[in-house]
Please model this.
Amino acid sequence: MPDSPDQGADRGVVRFITDAWPLVALGVIGALIIRACVPVHPPVQPAGAFDPQTGVRVGNWHAMSALQALTAESGSVQVLGALNLLVIDFSVTGSTLPDSAEPVLTRVAAVIEARPTSERYEITAYSERMDSPLADLDLSRRRAQAVVDFLIKQGVPTQRLQARGAGDQDPVAGEPGEESSFRNQRLQFALLP
Model:
């Protein structure tokens, strides 16, 4: 029995601290682990100005974050969602993959290889309206094939990939300007039946 009411309260506080510290420590450790797993925010683009290089960096930051978050249990919807965040900065009239695309495409190859072998992917490239519809279609086909060729070099079996060019069909941005052109020049991954 405590000698005074204050001694009983002190023992209660000591007992609470002794019993609760493992939970507090676990909470702090958990918070540190969560913080370590949360990616740093992407670069911010100033309002009113569009910079294609920033668009590529931000797009691929999102793509890489989404690709790294995929697990063996991720469904095809999540996989396609991550793949379709990919941004490749082809030159205006070119189909050569820029060096900046290599890290994210290497990750794409690893993701596809980890998926069931029954999953086959169509990679469709779109271009903005440049020359003639036939020239735009040819350019987009060559861009899609460049991506497929890279993935094959990374070890993805040829029979799991198909390239398709769509030219300037189905634009996602209709207003004139550099940002619309950037958004319309895109890749789209889809599962083949």
